[in-house]
Amino acid sequence: MKIAQALIQLTPSKTYATRENAQKAVEKFYGDRDFARQQTYFIATHTDGRFFPVFIGERAIQEGIHFKFNVVA
């Protein structure tokens, strides 16, 4: 039995030199709100060694995060 496989490659809209800078970008985008803490996301590494945040789930799309950062749902 063959199992179908698909490779998903994300193309970031913007990358950051360090993980810390990517995290700061998320925090800056949301300001003082605790909104980002209510979202699930991870910091991915691009093929060039730079970093970018990726949010997970439909809730992120409903909140419009996809206009600023990558979202997978």
Strand order of the largest sheet: 1-2-3
Rg: 14 Å
Proportion of β residues? 15-25%
Helix content: 10-25%
| Helical/strand content category | alpha+beta
N-to-C order of helices and strands: HEEHE
Query: What does the average pLDDT come to?
Result: 88
Q: Count up the domains.
A: 1
Terminal residue distance: 28 Å
Provide the low-confidence segments as ranges.
none
What does this entry look like structurally?
This protein is α+β, with helices and mostly antiparallel strands and 73 residues long. It has one domain. It has helices spanning 19-30, 58-62, and strands at residues 40-45, 51-56, 70-72. The chain has a 3-stranded mixed sheet. Strand 2, helix 2 and strand 3 form a beta-alpha-beta unit.
